[in-house]
Amino acid sequence: MDPDYTLFATIVATGSLSAAGRTLGMSPAMVSKRLARLEQRLGTRLVHRTTRRLSLTGAGVGFHTDVVAILAAIEAAESAVTGRQDVVRGQLRVSAPTAFGRLYVAPHLKGFLDRYPLVDLRLDLSDGVSDLLAERIDLAIRIAPTIGAGLSAHRLASSRRVLCAAPAYLAEAGTPVDIAALAGHRLLAADGQMPWRLHGPRGAVIVDHASHIGTNSSEVVRELALAGVGIALRSLWEVGRDIAAGRLARVVPDHEGSADVGIYAVHPDTPHVPRTVAALVDHLTDLYRTPPWDA
């Protein structure tokens, strides 16, 4: 295996020449020299270098995908020869939506790390859609109807979404009797979450209405609903406990969000999936086999 391939993968994983140097025990100048040598040999630039950050070129993105697959294949081959097939080790960077990651990922990482203590795990929470390669993310949790090309997607569970509001809001504004009545109410949604695509007894229906309060945070929408500001369309994993406790009430309960929205674990589509990624996918699959929020 060309050691410059390992160097390149480490640069991408750590995000800088200096960090890669610390990981590999060499100076940033030597890392830069070897990267330049690799680029010269390949006849193309792999990395854009700026004073603030590194970013991959188009050629660098493709080359990185291939290099990671090669390194994973070599690790698997060595483990098979040495009898260490069950050893899971290495860095693992995970991204998840803020609320879901806080409620249903972070509390369950201890069991994963107890089983795989040699994994160096980082969890980042964001409601934005991460570019896995550009942001050096190994595995991401996505809640969406579909997953784009270039990614392997493992459906972990469905994400039922229901209309809900605080009893105080309904006492003040009245309870809508059907979907058409929503037009006379204050509706709440984060940026990009309107229009609502609902399904009911007569099929699909779309509700398109400006949010009463603008926000980029799904968690803020939940808090606004709890405070009695208006009606929201929220996932059961987010508001199921509030509905059970009476803090929120279902509204127009014969309609729910589109059933095709799922909760997925996604990672770059490569021939050889890193063992750390495969182990976490298995852990999450077992965890959500019977979704705790459906209870």
- Spatial ordering of strands, largest sheet: 4-3-5-14-6
Overall tally of structural domains: 3
Shape: elongated
Strand content: 15-25%
Q: What is the number of beta strands?
A: 14
CATH architecture of the largest domain: 3-Layer(aba) Sandwich
Q: What would the CATH topology of the largest domain be?
A: D-Maltodextrin-Binding Protein, domain 2
Category from helices, strands and their pairing: alpha+beta
Terminal residue distance? 50 Å
Q: Assign a percent range to the helix content.
A: 25-40%
Instruction: Give me the strand/helix succession.
Output: HHHEEHEHHEEEEHEEEHEHEEEH
Oligomer: single chain
Identify the CATH homologous superfamily of the largest domain: Periplasmic binding protein-like II
